[in-house]
Amino acid sequence: MKxxxxxxxxxxxxxxxxxxxxxxxxxxxxxxxxxxxxxTFHPAEGGDxxxxxxxxxxxxxxxxxWQSSKIPADFKPKETTETLEKLVKQTSVISDKVxxxxxxxxxxxxxxxxxxxxxxxVGECKKTGEHEGNGH
Length: 136
Known about the structure:
This protein is mainly alpha-helical.
């Protein structure tokens, strides 16, 4: 079952990346965050929490940097701002929990939730042709 989920996730990431590259200029801070997220979340899915424990502070700092960057025109400003705020809070908690030596199960849940939030930003917070300009 894990292999099926991983395969589906890979397809979604590839499709999302291809879509994002074809529709808009890259958002460097998003790419930087994604690099750290991928390097911590994917190993955690497989039960390896060492990368997350080593990079929790970097994940939080990358989220803060992303939050303070200019939101590109092809993203919904209100939704993106709110969701980035949530992501910063989640990565702050992850960083604190790592410092507090939280167990692997708790950290796996936290990084999974932050990963879902990341995908909300790159998916639901993007404008589409039919929704542009109406705030949806």
